[in-house]
Amino acid sequence: MKRRVRAIMWVVGFVFASALARTVALHAEDWPRYRGKGDLGVWNETGIVDTLPPGGLPVRWRTAIKNGFSGPAVADGRVFITDFEYKKRPRGTERALALDERTGRILWTQEWEADYRGIGWDRGPGAIPTVEGDRVFVLGRAGELLALDVKTGEVLWRKNYVKDYHADREHWGFDFGFAAPPLVDGDRLICLVGGEPDAMVVAFDTRTGKEIWRALSSEVEPGYSPPHIIDVGGARQLITWDTGRVSSLDPVTGKVYWLYPYRSQGTMTIMTPLLIEHKELGPLLMVSSYFNGSLMLALDKDKPGAHLLWKGNSESEIVTDGLHAIMNVPVVIGDYIYGFCSYGQFRALKLATGERVWETQDVTKFKRRHTTAFMIRHGDRVFITNDSGELIIAKLAPDGYHEISRTQLIKPTYENQRRIVNWIHPAYANKHIITRNDEEIVSYSMAADGKSE
Fold first, then answer.
1. Are 159 and 167 within 8 A, CB to CB?
2. In contact, 350 and 336? CB cutoff 8 Å
3. Could you tell me which residues come within 8 angstroms of residue 277 by beta carbon, excluding any fewer than 6 positions away?
4. Closest CA to 425 of 391, 394, 393
């Protein structure tokens, strides 16, 4: 009888422990691509700090790496990052690395030669790796696309945008190379290529690298905006944004649903097109560029289609009437848009009209060209990393910017406009924030109890 009771208690304990483990797992969250799962810029984990310690967050590990603008991706216990080192200008070596998420130990390295001729911002790759299942997809600054095995780093297939698709990078205005992270949709890897003929966007088979479809002409520069899928108007729509238009395609076939002309100067189409579901205005789509400001499209509810809701009037980086975003994606809360403008001004706009409500320089502290910051939402607050290498917790409201706390996160190492900056979108994963500069990649605990599990 006692044995039976002990057996029952063991089974009950095992079931409880398993359920508890599942519950804990539900609160953990990987960051497998740019802006996290679904490209939404939202972190849903609980048990995160309420305020940032003045002396800095607890460091879990630091690992030396080389130059790069690309942030990390985190999936299944691994951290993926890319970097670059010159050998003899303009040529050097790009690398993809996988690190152990708990220890920072390098598990594997894959490298390839890269020619940075004609590339102005030449400090390394700019596209965050994209992880899906047993593969990680990385894009180099010179257009090398590789599918790698997540466990070994083995090259499974590769493409080169310049050699294979005749992407004409040397004739683009301000050339930053290739930096739009690829998007996985089922068995398709969808990439902003800028190739010819009619290969602005190309879908590859994720397993083999074989081309599935290509779409859109490349008479304009592709820019750097990541392809993004939305589910609106009774269809899944692939949204792409190049320097001449916002486009909606069928992600399965590449068929064009609709195009909206919007010319952007200087190849400065960088932000991810932002879907906004508004209870009164319906589904909206926003893009914003450095020189030409913001465009808000109203999307049809019953079929794929779009028409203009409003557009900013300014086409100057200096005299701006609304929001001229650079690399950051704005945040929408209620009836207001919050984002960073061309000289680091943090602004609030009315969602319905684009009218500016307030602005502050308190987040970035510097009013200089290209000053920016990155934002993600966490519950009713936002986490912001500015280009001074600081991490900030704040709340945003129509009456202004409400800072809760800030701390130094990482040393800026890249010189731009006579300022040393850090332009990295970090990963928020499993109660940690992971970021990098040109010297190291660092994992910090964001857990409320201060522990690094």
1. no
2. yes
3. 283, 284
4. 391
